[in-house]
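Lab manual, section 2.4: Encoding a predicted structure.

Procedure: take the sequence of the chain (364 residues), apply the prediction step described in section 2.3, and record the output as structure tokens. A sample record is shown.
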Amino acid sequence: MQEQSAILEQGAIIGIVGGGQLGKMLALSALQLGFKVAIYCPDPDSPAFDVTPLKFIADYDDEKKLTEFASLVDIITYEFENLPTQSLKFLEKTKPVAPSSRILEIAQDRLKEKLFLASNDIAVAQYMKVETLSDLENAIKEITLPIVLKTTRMGYDGKGQRIIKTTQQIEQAFNELKGSTLIAEKFISFEREISIIVARTRRGQVRDYDASENIHENHILKTSTVPANIDNITRKRASRIAHEIIGSLDYIGVLGIEFFVVPNEPYAKLIVNEIAPRVHNSGHFTQAVCLTNQFEQHIRAIANWPLGDPTRLANVTMENLIGDEIIDAHKDLQSGTRPDFYGKKQVREGRKMGHLNHISFLSE
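Recorded output:
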């Protein structure tokens, strides 16, 4: 197993679990730094398979294939959080995994995530556990409407959640989501949503990027703009909270943290909405305008290399291309736009197919 202070040498093989666009971009950064990359994913059409010959096409719980994968690589990371934690624990028996399976267990479960944050004095929305309709009714009495009812697991891009504004909506919302443990959260009337991308190495070095301001359409991130429209005090507080979270987790790699900015006197209040134990969609702006992008930073962090400079050299708006927006996106590219098309073979409604970074230089 890799020692806490060990540095991963050039030529080592980094294993990435998951083969989507994040895995592809991680792989490209690893290759640029002189590593080799192996991808493990059950989907043979995964974009990340395009950039390396070392491919493992198998289910995430296939212990025989996981054993083959672990025997080939020197260290393992992952590109999304909806993985079986048992698979990561199995891999950890023989190779270091970063971020660890313990981190994944916290981030996968909204109740565990809220409990972790609250126990570290990080502000979160008021919440209660819900298993029965009676639990939900009690939660509404305690928290008061409106609330957001969510599944505790497997929720992303708006999936697995319902906003309850009136008592007439309670039973329907519960019936649509019942079957697993739920969480009822106070609906936060926020001014804006921001994200911080922060990285930490095995030796405890921490660096974070400028906050991005996020706009969602149909519960899917549409744009992230940097700099966010927040004052310097709020910016510094968000950075400080990000450092506190990543340190408390003893985290290795890049972590995405989403905040609600709530108007308050004399300064805005910051409420953590969720954490993502991976490179993050709202951090794609770093590819176009930062000395070190989030993907290279993640590879540096898990390899225990010194972190790169996250300085931003220009203003930028990252725009996600959703569904058929990808089809003609190449035909009208502006000179100040940096495209990244993922190469997914199937276009589907609501599927992230690529992104554009629209750059405006600081002198403009």
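Check your result against the sample. The longest strand covers residues 253-262.
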